[in-house]
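Worked problem 6 (solution included).
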Amino acid sequence: MSGTRVVFQPESNGVAWIRFESDNGVQLLSLEVLEQLARVVSQLEEQPPRIVVIAASGRTFLAGASLHELQALDRRSARRYSRRGQKLFRRIARLPSLTVCAIHAACAGGGCELALACDFRFLAESARIGLPEVTLGLIPGWGGAARALRNLGPLAARRLVLSGELLPASEARLLGLADAVYPDASFTSDLETRLNQLLRAAPEAVATAKAFLAHGPHLDLDDLLLEEARLFGRCYQTREPAEGLAAFLEKRPARWPAPPASSGPAESS
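Solution. The predicted structure is:
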């Protein structure tokens, strides 16, 4: 038993929360915790909220995987272990919801890999984040190296993966690993302000945009432009453009219609 618990708070006012907690304040991503997280993700896939926030409490955000579980692996079981985490984090990346990682403290290894699978990473100024696997004789195995390379670029990925450092929040922002850094004292209120800003976006438009951004790296420019035009047209199959444009002209907040229950997940890397 890792002692880490996944606490799910269903959607309220458009935002659902996934919180990692433990009695000693040091959260680990053991296989047991991955299973807890997978059950929550299944609920989110069935009923996607507008925003999913992943947060934690205590001395760490996530301190990484269980070292005892890593010690027990051999070549074959290590491959299965890697694929298990990769598949779960890919499911999180494919959610049509906006996904936000709210990192208040140290976020290492598997925690950083989970954060890289999210759309946004907001850090408290005292937080640190990184992929220390090379200091253990390993490489990231749950998609961290792949996402760092694809999402941050080769130079930032080299710094993150090869150094094994836990980077200060300010440096993580320079690398593109943090989307914003907030003062520790106002982290909760600044996060709430940012979530309210994100709630202004139309849910189906967000899901469509996420699908486009996920496909983008695989297409050349001509194909990418055709895909953009196709998805732009598809937006008009929903009621969101009518409401969004009317709200802007009438100088009022948009009242987005609920997406149809059959709305599928966005694809992402």
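Discussion: Strands lie at 4-12, 15-22, 51-56, 60-62, 98-103, 106-108, 120-124, 128-130, 166-168, 180-182.
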